[in-house]
């Protein structure tokens, strides 16, 4: 049996910008930005809670994945 490649590739800016423009009005737009810009995994984005975000310092902490 041939083995499937685990490399799913990466998105470059030429691909990411049109994608973000097309999902701008979607309710999960912020999650898409986190995945593309910061490289977060789906489980890391879905594990974020309001208490993980420090709005005063402008940062967040991934505590669960």
Structural write-up:
By secondary structure, the protein is mostly helical. It is 38% helix and 6% strand. The chain has a two-stranded antiparallel ribbon. The radius of gyration is 15 Å and the shape is extended. The model has no long low-confidence stretch (mean pLDDT 86).
Helical coverage, percent range:
25-40%
Radius of gyration: 15 Å
Compute the separation of the termini in Å: 32 Å
Supply the helix-strand structural class: mainly alpha
Task: List the strand order in the largest sheet.
Answer: 1-2
* Low-pLDDT regions: none
Number of strands: 2
Mean pLDDT: 86
Query: Main sheet, how many strands, which sense, barrel?
Result: 2 strands, antiparallel
Q: Kindly estimate the percentage of residues that lie in beta strands according to DSSP.
A: 5-15%
Which term fits the overall shape?
extended
Number of helices: 3
**N-to-C order of helices and strands:** HHHEE
